[in-house]
Amino acid sequence: MPTLNYYGLPGLVDMPTANVMPDADLSLTGSYVDGTLRGTIAFQVMPRLTATFRYAAIPEFTPDSTPINQDYYLDRSFDLHWQILDEDSWWPSLAVGIRDIAGTGVYGGEYIVATRHFGADDRLAVTAGLGFGRLGERDGFANPFGLGNRPPRDFGLGGTVNFDQFFRGDAAVFGGVEYQASDRLRLQLEYSTDIYTAEAADGVIEIESPINLGATYDMGRYGTIGAHYLYGTTFGLSYSLSTNPRRGAFNGTLDAAPEPVRPRPVSAEPYATSWVSQPDGAPILRDNVERLFEEDGGLELVSLSLDPQRATIRVRNIRYGQEAMALGRVLRVLSVTMPNSVEVFEVIFIVNGADASRVRVNRSDVEALEHDVNGASGLMARADVEPAGRVGDPDTITIRGTTPDRLTWGIGPYVETALFDPDAPFRGDLGLEAQARFEFGRGFVAEGALRVPLIGNLSDARVVDGVEPGGPFPVRSESALYYQESEARLDRLTLSHYGRLGDDLYTRLTFGYMERMFAGASAEVLWQRVDSRLGLGVELNHVWRRDFDGGFGLQDYSVTSGHVSAYFPIFGDFTGQVDVGRYLAGDYGATLRVDREFANGWRVGAFATFTDVSFDEFGEGSFDKGIELTVPLGWFTGTSSRSEQTTTLRPILRDGGARLSVEGRLHDLIPDYHQPALEETEAMLWR
Hints:
By secondary structure, the protein is mainly beta.
């Protein structure tokens, strides 16, 4: 793992290196120097590409004479760091980077940097680079690429890319060394070319020397701490914590062992089928399946249909986040409970009352491959995954589970946060939430949630102004009023129906109070083949804005919104999504989203929305964009769970590009049980 500098990127102290983090690493870095606080999230998007999002608080700083009415200037910025060449033989690694690529440009700078390791165990690393912008201020010289002067920074409303500045203006040479003094201790010395012109002019910091010294100590799973002497005038501290979605907090799983496969006795004669006419045979089979499901704790029987050679079982997966694991446990239970003559197992997982897919497996393959070294991949290769309705169920015996309907409810704490308020970087509420959900069967689902905040400061948030005359209706910019004017609020209360129109066509229809701000009706159709990640969807909504008090009342603003959506694979574990249509403020446009999805449920993605709302009408930030991080609960606990926590890092929430929030969108549910997802998680089939 490379050292992360004060900007949260691979580097020394202030200056970058050409190193990269391990693929898919996610790091959080905090640093403090002379009152300036920086918090950075860095993600190794690909083996050579690192992306960061940074939030900085600079004391008593007024960039470009911008009026300021607070003790800290709060700045948001994005960076990209791309390693062009690996270190090899006598060649150093080489990287290029752009700092503050789409922000105010306060930290704007670009670099080309090389790093080479020397000595036993590569303990000494030498770095040299060429900096531009902020990194080209000390002893600068004429641009070596002949790109001319660097134009003055004009970030306007922020959020746009400053293409006209990249690698322009004077350049300067920076460098440094790092020494691995022990397994955990590293020492850094660097020559910095950033002279903090704007901050020094405002008296934020004093710069007397280009030499920075540092030491970092690796505390293992508890992160890395650093202490540094900077600019010849001050001391600084840093802390970095890294994780990787591919590495769980626990080795293996803490789940109970599954039911072992029961091989049938070898017989030269056909297996008997007299059980079909046994009067109490069907209830006995159902009770045996339900007993083992209850012991497992993660599965529920909806229905069971049989004939002498085939069994079709409909199941709710209420626990397993990795769907192949749920499939493997169902197959084991069927091997134990089904009569010997049943050779074909068909498993249909029920998602909100709708059949997601039909997985057909030969029982003899289950028996033969349970303990095979490549048994999981071998079984999935032999399994048939097809639309649930393409083949009819057996009609000799059909019996429902004893509890086909499902009620879940709970009361517990909740935490809700709001980030990047210009007046406060972090706001949050802690309170109690009561929620309930009932699956009626036949695709009908009712659910609701009531929240009562106990402590917090979300009600102190300001109402975002700046909606221009003739611009978008103030939908999200007034979201603070929903905290200020309610003590207890109905977050959602809906009735939905899920179904299928054909082999690859799935439907959802939702009525009610769908989110904190809007109520109405939402209809969706999804075309999704069971053997492909490509999907197409259409959604249409008509909603009214709810009263600020969080009750049942509605305001006089209504809007019809909707989108045509395409879901598609990009490469590897990267997926894309494009939504084109009308948004809540009545604006038209499109949203582009790219995610990196991991087999264990982690997802890291970014999105951007562009509509016919101009940058000026949108206001600060220019357009809607953000980073979204989804973490499965089971990753932390070591036990299987379908619960997950999603956090959206959005620089600012305004009206343009605002989309309705609806629980249970089809593409978030149905593809989990299709062939690509089952094959992706096949390693968990026998766990």
